[in-house]
Write a structure and sequence with these properties.
Jelly Rolls; 47% helix
């Protein structure tokens, strides 16, 4: 990460919020919990707001907490001896930061931090350990790990074979799917690190996408203006990502859509009630 990057400075988190059974439906993994497991997470978990660069876990240090993104995105990065970093994986509301724990480890050779700010449900590693032994819940976790591993292979090929222009479009689409917003707080320096390329290459790619009218960039924020155009500019790997995680996200996306409908209809219903009284 460049020293002069504007996103490197951590921000203060807001106060944690109590978890509810309904809030578990905002993450594809937690949405699979039932009965006593739901009660355990509601009782012991919290909803936290993660700022950019918030550390999820450090390399070779014991993982103490597990995060389930709601509308933030976590990044898994590998650090080289010279200090350079490259992103090797991302996690959104389709998954959890607990990949090393699911594979039987207590530490990781990589490190993880928040890439795009937002909310996540946080529980202790010990509680997660008790959840993953549940016979009803474990198949969902295994399904997520398989999808995640499949994407690692796809992205390795993507970084080697596809242009930075295509990869930039793919990354923006995948991120928008996870944060459910047209605006993504991001600098060119940070995106270059995510894509494993030089900042100049990202500047050219983002400039080309902006000239085409697909995005707008300014003040550390990328705004997606034309999603279909961005999809046409992306490589095949975005379609693969949607296929891998689509099943996991289907119920979450449906729930979020229903919540938006309720929010949109509620003011009109209130006005009608007032007019009748």
């Amino acid at each position: 990460m460049p020293r002069n990057s504007r996103v490197a400075k951590p921000q203060k988190s807001t106060a944690p919020v109590k978890v509810t059974a309904e809030s578990l439906r905002l993450n594809a993994i937690l949405a699979g919990l039932e009965g006593a497991e739901v009660e355990a997470v509601v009782r012991n978990g919290v909803i936290v707001h993660l700022p950019v660069r918030h550390q999820i876990y450090r390399a070779d240090e014991r993982i103490k907490d597990v995060f389930f993104p709601i509308d933030c995105v976590l990044s898994i990065v590998t650090r080289m001896e010279d200090g350079n970093q490259i992103e090797v994986g991302t996690i959104g509301r389709e998954g959890t930061s607990a990949i090393p724990l699911l594979l039987g480890a207590t530490t990781s050779a990589n490190e993880s931090y928040c890439q795009v700010p937002g909310r996540a449900i946080k529980i202790g590693a010990a509680l997660f350990g008790s959840l993953q032994t549940n016979k009803r819940f474990r198949p969902l976790l295994d399904r997520y790990v398989q999808a995640y591993v499949n994407m690692l292979g796809q992205l390795a090929a993507c970084n080697r074979l596809h242009s930075v222009y295509e990869r930039c479009a793919r990354w923006l689409l995948m991120t928008q799917d996870r944060v459910d917003s047209h605006e993504i707080p991001l600098t060119h320096e940070y995106l270059a690190m995510m894509l494993g390329t030089q900042r100049s290459g990202v500047t050219i790619a983002a400039g080309t996408l902006q000239k085409a009218g697909f995005i707008k960039y300014g003040h550390g924020t990328i705004t997606i203006l034309d999603r279909s155009g961005l999809e046409g500019s992306s490589c095949e790997c975005y379609a693969v990502a949607r296929e891998q995680f689509g099943g996991l996200l289907r119920s979450v996306n449906a729930f979020i859509a229903s919540q938006k409908t309720v929010s949109a209809v509620a003011p009109e219903l209130k006005r009608k009630r007032i007019s009748r009284s």
